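>> received
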Amino acid sequence: MDPTAAIGALVTSVLSGGSNAIIAIMLFVIGASVLVVRYLVLEIKDQRSQIHETNERYLRLLQAYHDSNNTVTSALNDLRIVLIEIRAKL
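>> returned
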């Protein structure tokens, strides 16, 4: 059935009154509810994706900080050992 014909049939049913009008209104409400729920599900999915990407960036930042901190600590320890060896030779 053509969508415009279906909408026309629903409008005609509503305007005619009676039980057909109630059924037509209920079908419209159900259809609108399905569209709203679908939109909300897609929005939630998009939000979760954005949150996941943000968390991944934070984890990469923390890992980079941790790696650089370990590198600096290792360099300072190596420097300390060299200074101890120099002091021992003097």
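>> The two ends are 98 Å apart (CA to CA).
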